[in-house]
Amino acid sequence: MSSGLRRALAALAYSTLPLLAAGAAQAAVPADMAARLDTDLTPLGSERAGNEDGTIPAWTGGLQSPPAGLGYQRGMHHPNPYSADQSLFTITRDNMGQYADRLTGAQKALLENYGDTFKMNVYPSHRSCAQPDFVYEANRKNALTGIITDEGNGVDQAIMGKPFPVPNSGYEVLWNHLLGFGNHKLQRQFAAVIPTASGDYTKYSARDDAIIRWNDPAIKTAAELDNIMALYILHTLEPTRVSGNVILVHETLNRLSDPRKAWQYSPGTRRVRRAPNIAYDNPGTNSDGATTSDSFGGFNGAPDRYTWTLKGRQEAYIPYNNYELYSDKLTYDDVIRPRHLNTDHVRYELHRVWQLEANLKPSTRHVYSRRVFYQDEDSWGIVSAELYDARGELWRVQEQYPVTFYEVPVCGSSMGAAYDFTNGRYIAVGLINEEEPVNFYADHLEERRYTPQTIRTLGR
């Protein structure tokens, strides 16, 4: 039996659920299905076993605390627990055919377009993703109660963790990306760059913070959220021409009946205005038009303009455990190269991913007519994406670079990149090499901060 057929059969055996496009509301799973989170599935909702040839290991708990011997203390950049690993092999344009069945469409396009410099260094796989035990307990409860509402545009009867750890539909898989545990209060300073084709760039520096009400331990039900699942402020620090711009977002849980609420302070006008354009295909903040508002983090915001179809599950070489890419031992000049990130510092591993396809509804508009996403089975986060224009041609691709922040623990991406094949440029967002690490314990933040008056004060 071929390895490709074995992988296909393994994916089919994973679940007897109807993993196809969602229609209207989807029901929670029965108790016997939810019980799988303690047997053949991990408490994250992924397959507990490794693959047949051992190249994907079984999940044994992940990095639940800082590994011994690293000398890590909170407030440090995260030492790489896998620094002793040697690359198994390197995928290039010349040999990509040998690995084609384990490459995403985005990776194939990067190798084909930039193959003289783009490569993929593949390392041993480590299923490092972990969450606190109280999140696993929330996942177990959510599996029994969580439902999709408003034809895929909202969630109810779930709180904290993943709303659908045993998913029934493409919409539920998407919401597992949109919602999940990232701790309650967070703060960071980061950089974004949009290099020219020659590699020159101007650094955008910004500070952001958030209260993720979805993860508030004091909130026990979705109804208590009052439909506000997160509060967010983004304060741009440089360059001078955009310094002082501040954005405030109240992210909603049901995004059709009550869309995202956003405000923007501009130092040029010294006014705070509502900002409904911070959504959908409007240009992303500080992106120079290199990406859309709903592309940050892989995908964010309302899903209502697309029909979402779950295509299945596969094994793929994806960015994973990219501690080196976040390291304070590197500068931004070390990381940034013409046309793409310096792939000497990007780590790929073999993992199982869900493939999710979004097709634009005929009655709506968006610059992307079709989007294909690949979500890591353990974290449910988007790690790779393909973005097609109105003609159906591949326009841009995205990668996210996950790690497990083992002091919490939280598994996810602070950094991502989007590559544009029409002009040879890209945008990288979330660089922290020259900044302080992400603070997952910003307990001083209070909800009363997240008001239009506050951002007026910050921007002065």
Q: What can you see in these coordinates?
A:
With 460 residues, the protein is of the alpha+beta class. It has one domain: outer membrane lipoprotein receptor (LolB), chain A (Clam). The chain is 14% helix and 28% strand. A 13-stranded antiparallel β-sheet has the order 10-9-8-7-6-5-17-16-15-14-13-12-11, with helices on both faces. Strands 1-2 form a two-stranded antiparallel ribbon. A two-stranded antiparallel sheet has the order 3-4. A hairpin with a 4-residue loop joins strand 9 and strand 10. The longest helix has 13 residues. The termini are far apart. It comes from Pyruvatibacter mobilis. This is DUF1329 domain-containing protein. Keywords: Signal.
Q: Average pLDDT across residues?
A: 94
Order of helix and strand elements from N to C terminus: HHEHEHEEHEEEEEEEHHEEEEEEH
Question: How much of the residues is beta strand, in percent?
Answer: 25-35%
Under the CATH scheme, which architecture would be assigned? Clam
